[in-house]
């Protein structure tokens, strides 16, 4: 949480005390489990380093966290309209709800939207989807079969999943037979999964899974390389996974690794300058432009920063506004804050 009347230390103390005064004002996202809870959750308190606080349920869901099954943050069972609808979600967790379903229950969709937004900051259909996908994510995290997760998400066949994968990964591999492939693999981190795409020798892309431009980035990479993208693991995947494990454990920074030759000459110069920012420090866009010998290139530097497809390796999260504000970060400002604090702690330990 970046802007609130309560700081994180106050909220963590409220979590420890299970203080009901904070009910509905903030929620805790636990990076080690991928769930979010009320501050009054009866579960064992997570470690301070593993929590992120958010001021809305929508922010928790958008960040990829699943609702806790003990404190049930998406519940308001005593409300005359919300309670019955949430119980229906419980009774049919795989159902894909639509507005017509609400009408068939004799309810006014606009009224239901207002009521749910007032209580949760989300519509009923958004709550239903969050629960459904959260349940599916939980099954996958528990290493259950993909078909089970697929059915839990409300797909009666694999066509929905296959269509989504095809949309992201592009043309089927048979269209490129004999031309080689790019391999994609997921790497788990404490702040969400990352997608890594590599060939047999170098890494071409490393992004958090919920980056909105990720499908477009994959498509551009596929077209630029003239190769399909399949799900597989290569040696570069193994190397970056090992390095990320050390980085998130706080035992080592990320070393230079073999990466693909992408970007314009100017973009490459900006990315090279990013790597020169020491661990635990930050630079402004203006500072980067000055370091490149072109003080008038602030906006161009910002655009190059945003075009970076190798998150963490080219540490664009270390660039902040001239006034000290975190400014934009495609992986989410909450991640940017977490990464900077993590690196500051690492630097303090030497």
Automatic annotation (TrEMBL):
InterPro entries: Ada_DNA_repair_Zn-bd, Bifunct_regulatory_prot_Ada, HTH_AraC, MethylDNA_cys_MeTrfase_AS, MethylDNA_cys_MeTrfase_DNA-bd. It comes from the Bacteria. CDD domains: ATase. SMART domains: HTH_ARAC. Residues 104-179 form the HTH araC/xylS-type domain. It holds the Pfam family DNA_binding_1. PANTHER family: METHYLATED-DNA--PROTEIN-CYSTEINE METHYLTRANSFERASE. NCBIfam families: ogt. This is Bifunctional transcriptional activator/DNA repair protein Ada. It comes from Pacificimonas pallii.
């Amino acid at each position: 949480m970046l802007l609130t009347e309560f700081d994180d230390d106050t909220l963590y103390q409220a979590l420890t005390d299970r203080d009901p005064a904070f009910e509905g004002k903030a929620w805790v996202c636990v990076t080690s489990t991928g769930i979010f809870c009320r501050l009054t959750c009866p579960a064992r308190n997570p470690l301070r380093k593993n929590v992120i606080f958010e001021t809305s349920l929508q922010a928790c869901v958008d960040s990829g966290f699943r609702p806790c099954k003990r404190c049930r943050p998406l519940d308001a069972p005593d409300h005359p309209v919300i309670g019955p609808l949430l119980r229906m979600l419980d009774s049919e967790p795989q159902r894909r709800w639509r507005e017509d379903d609400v009408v068939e229950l004799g309810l006014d969709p606009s009224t239901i939207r207002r009521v749910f937004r007032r209580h949760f900051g989300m519509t009923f259909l958004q709550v239903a989807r969050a629960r459904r996908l959260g349940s599916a994510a939980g099954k996958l995290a528990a290493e259950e079969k993909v078909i089970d997760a697929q059915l839990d998400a409300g797909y009666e066949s694999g066509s929905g999943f296959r269509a989504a994968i095809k949309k992201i990964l592009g043309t089927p591999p048979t269209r490129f037979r004999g031309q080689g492939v790019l391999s994609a693999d997921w790497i788990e981190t404490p702040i969400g999964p990352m997608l890594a795409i590599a060939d047999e020798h170098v890494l071409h892309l490393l992004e958090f899974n919920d980056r909105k431009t990720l499908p477009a980035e994959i498509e551009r990479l596929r077209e630029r390389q003239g190769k399909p993208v399949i799900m597989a693991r290569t040696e570069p995947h193994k190397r970056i996974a090992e390095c990320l494990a050390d980085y998130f454990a706080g035992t080592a920074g990320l070393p230079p690794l073999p990466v693909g030759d992408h970007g314009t000459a100017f973009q490459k110069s900006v990315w090279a300058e990013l790597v020169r920012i020491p661990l635990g420090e930050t630079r402004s866009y203006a500072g980067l432009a000055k370091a490149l010998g072109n003080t008038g290139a602030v906006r161009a530097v910002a655009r190059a920063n945003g075009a970076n497809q190798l998150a963490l390796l080219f540490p664009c999260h270390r660039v902040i506004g001239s006034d000290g504000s975190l400014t934009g970060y495609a992986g989410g400002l909450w991640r940017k804050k977490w990464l900077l604090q993590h690196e500051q702690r690492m630097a303090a330990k030497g």
